[in-house]
Each structure stands twice: as C-alpha cells, then as structure tokens.
Write a structure and sequence with these properties.
Length: 141
C-alpha cells in the first residue's frame, strides 16, 4: 500500500467520514474511491487537490512528500511557533498553493496571464478574510 493510500484512509477515518461521504464530496463513485484507498488505482491530480481540501490536508502530506500536515495546526499551536517553524510553515503553504495553481492551470487550460490574475484574486481574498478576522477579534476581546 502506498503512503498516499495509507494517508487517505488515515485522514478519512480521523474525520469520521465514510468512503461514500468522501467519494460524494469529490464527485466519484464509492468503488473508485475504495480503489484509491486500497492502492489499486491513483486519482488524477485535480482529485488529489479535492481530496486534500476535503480532508484538511496539504497535497504534499497526502502524497507522502511531507511528514507534517501543516493544515492540521490549531490556532494555539500556530501562535506558539518559533520564528524558524513559522518560516517552514510559510514555505510549505506557498509550495502547496503553487501545486494547486499548477494543477488548476493544467485542468482548466489557463494561460500564464489568467494564472497571475487567479493568484492576485486568491491573495486579495485571503487579505480581506484576515482583515475581517482582525476586526472581529478586536470587537470581541
């Protein structure tokens, strides 16, 4: 069994999801999902991204390229990171985001210009969400 298959099953069971539930979330039938989890087949890259998203995981963790699931860090743990750990987390998140962009570019046959626009939109949305969170935190001490 591949690291991908092991992590897929591990993350699904940690989230207390059935195979049918995750299959429905990523738009495949249960047999297809079961084949991924049993290591009999591998999903297309766009499905890997969907799986990682639904399982609150980075693509690298799910694929076995990293042994740390950087998306599974609590807010408390995040606040207690050292400067070095925060830099590693930042680098891993960038790497994960760029992997997602590349997979999307290929899937939707996007030009470089369209990809740059998508990156700007994602960053703008992130910044808006952070501003909103800060405002909410300030009004709820």
């Amino acid at each position: 069994m591949s690291k991908f298959s092991e992590r897929l099953k591990q993350l699904r069971t940690e989230k207390k999801m059935t195979q049918q539930t995750i299959a429905d979330l990523v738009g495949v039938n249960r047999a297809t999902y079961t084949n991924w989890e049993n290591g009999k087949r591998e999903p297309e890259l766009d499905k890997v991204v969907e799986l990682a998203t639904e399982l609150n995981s980075t693509v690298d963790y799910l694929l076995g390229n990293s042994d740390i699931n950087y998306l599974d860090i609590t807010e408390k743990e995040l606040k207690n990171l050292s400067k070095e750990e925060a830099q590693i987390l930042s680098d891993e998140m960038k790497k994960n985001l760029f992997s997602i962009f590349e997979i999307g570019k290929d899937k939707f046959n996007m030009t470089e210009e369209e990809m740059e626009m998508m990156k700007v939109l994602v960053i703008k949305k992130f910044m808006q969400d952070m501003d909103e969170k800060e405002k909410n935190d300030a009004s709820n001490p």
